[in-house]
Amino acid sequence: MKREDECYAQLIEELKGKLPILREPDILTEEIIHRISSLPVKRRTSPYVAIISGISGVAATLLLCLLVSQSMVTPLPVRDTRIAMPYKALIHLPEEMSLSQKKTLLLARWQTQQQEQAARREFLIKRANEMKCKLK
Length: 136
Prior knowledge:
Blueprint (H helix, E strand, L loop, with lengths): L1 H16 L7 H14 L8 H27 L12 H5 L8 H37 L1
């Protein structure tokens, strides 16, 4: 293995030391010049394109600044205190009612609400099952 590495290193050194031999350097030079001269010349962009691209860059920068400033400066929403106790405003019980009467009235309201929710839930489940059957 070491012998192969040594031979490989020696071969590389020999190749690095040799210069390439040119048979016809004049023809090679002429071909290079001809290829360079045949390359297409880059035309300058029209001034209208430069102006429009500059204007669009400025507009994009202004829009970006506007959106960033709007998101940074916008005040936080104020918490409404009326929403904190939603059930107080919905349930009005007369002051003259006793505690047990209020309890039975609220229990009856709660039971009817639970029944309505159960009926809605059953209706939605039935409707969903019908939709699944139609899709199959």
